[in-house]
């Protein structure tokens, strides 16, 4: 036991800790890049499913916008077949660009959540369930409001049957995104970018608030079971 707690063992422990911290600091940007790439890969793999899902949900709807061409799909397989046949396989990735930008939505959400939590912890030792629920809701509301114009454009691009695309080009470039944003503002005003925001906030804000509440409770329970103090102040 004495050999384990010797000065030499302490030196090795400190050296190992310093080495670990140094390595983590040097390679942390790579870990961040890995997480971002995971989000990108997820977008690229799931966008075709979202395109088909959006078109099937909107099928049969009556649109005031005359630029939108109606669709007639018999099911998922038929939707894939018609899109590839009539618009080309790249049409399955319509809306990829705004989808990639929307990867930052959770980053904005967590940034505001952690910032609000730190401010509250300066004034009190522990956050109540109501505190967590409220700051979780506020952070998600901010993230959703900031990124909602991109979600609006994303939905338009996923639907795809738009007359601005007579040559069946993939509607995902920055140029088309900016064009749709400009047309939306020109036709409906700045609030046209936020049509349907109320329903989206009702859906996402409550979900995120509950998620943060459960997360904090599980974290606290885990610390308690492990016999550790849940020191969350930063």
Automatic annotation (TrEMBL):
<feature type="repeat" description="Solcar">
    <location>
        <begin position="127"/>
        <end position="221"/>
    </location>
</feature>
<dbReference type="GO" id="GO:0080122">
    <property type="term" value="F:AMP transmembrane transporter activity"/>
</dbReference>
<feature type="transmembrane region" description="Helical">
    <location>
        <begin position="12"/>
        <end position="30"/>
    </location>
</feature>
<dbReference type="Pfam" id="PF00153">
    <property type="entry name" value="Mito_carr"/>
</dbReference>
<dbReference type="InterPro" id="IPR023395">
    <property type="entry name" value="MCP_dom_sf"/>
</dbReference>
<dbReference type="InterPro" id="IPR052217">
    <property type="entry name" value="Mito/Peroxisomal_Carrier"/>
</dbReference>
<dbReference type="GO" id="GO:0015217">
    <property type="term" value="F:ADP transmembrane transporter activity"/>
</dbReference>
<keyword id="KW-0812">Transmembrane</keyword>
<keyword id="KW-1133">Transmembrane helix</keyword>
<feature type="transmembrane region" description="Helical">
    <location>
        <begin position="127"/>
        <end position="148"/>
    </location>
</feature>
<feature type="repeat" description="Solcar">
    <location>
        <begin position="7"/>
        <end position="119"/>
    </location>
</feature>
<keyword id="KW-0576">Peroxisome</keyword>
<dbReference type="GO" id="GO:0044610">
    <property type="term" value="F:FMN transmembrane transporter activity"/>
</dbReference>
<dbReference type="GO" id="GO:0015228">
    <property type="term" value="F:coenzyme A transmembrane transporter activity"/>
</dbReference>
<protein>
    <submittedName>
        <fullName>Solute carrier family 25 member 17</fullName>
    </submittedName>
</protein>
<comment type="similarity">
    <text>Belongs to the mitochondrial carrier (TC 2.A.29) family.</text>
</comment>
<dbReference type="GO" id="GO:0015230">
    <property type="term" value="F:FAD transmembrane transporter activity"/>
</dbReference>
<dbReference type="GO" id="GO:0005347">
    <property type="term" value="F:ATP transmembrane transporter activity"/>
</dbReference>
<keyword id="KW-0813">Transport</keyword>
<dbReference type="GO" id="GO:0005778">
    <property type="term" value="C:peroxisomal membrane"/>
</dbReference>
<dbReference type="InterPro" id="IPR018108">
    <property type="entry name" value="MCP_transmembrane"/>
</dbReference>
<keyword id="KW-0472">Membrane</keyword>
<dbReference type="GO" id="GO:0051724">
    <property type="term" value="F:NAD transmembrane transporter activity"/>
</dbReference>
<keyword id="KW-0677">Repeat</keyword>
């Amino acid at each position: 036991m004495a050999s384990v707690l010797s000065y030499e063992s302490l030196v090795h422990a400190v050296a190992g800790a310093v080495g670990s911290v140094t390595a983590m600091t040097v390679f942390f940007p790579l870990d961040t890049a890995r997480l971002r790439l995971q989000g990108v890969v997820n977008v690229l793999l799931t966008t075709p499913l979202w395109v088909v899902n959006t078109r099937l949900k909107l099928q049969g709807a009556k649109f005031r916008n005359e630029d939108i061409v109606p669709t007639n799909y018999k099911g998922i397989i038929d939707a894939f077949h018609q899109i590839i046949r009539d618009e080309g396989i790249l049409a399955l990735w319509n809306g990829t660009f705004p989808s990639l930008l929307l990867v930052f939505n959770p980053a904005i959400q967590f940034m505001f959540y952690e910032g609000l939590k730190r401010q509250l912890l300066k004034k009190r030792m522990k956050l109540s369930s109501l505190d967590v629920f409220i700051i979780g809701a506020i952070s998600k509301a901010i993230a959703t409001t900031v990124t909602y114009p991109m979600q609006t454009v994303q939905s338009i691009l996923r639907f795809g049957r738009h007359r601005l695309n007579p040559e069946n080009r993939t509607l995902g470039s920055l140029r088309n995104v900016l064009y749709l944003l400009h047309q939306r503002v020109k036709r409906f005003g700045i609030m046209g970018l936020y049509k349907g925001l109320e329903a989206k906030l009702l859906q996402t804000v409550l979900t995120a608030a509950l998620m943060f509440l459960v997360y904090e409770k599980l974290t606290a329970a885990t610390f308690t079971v492990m016999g550790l103090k849940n020191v969350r102040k930063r």
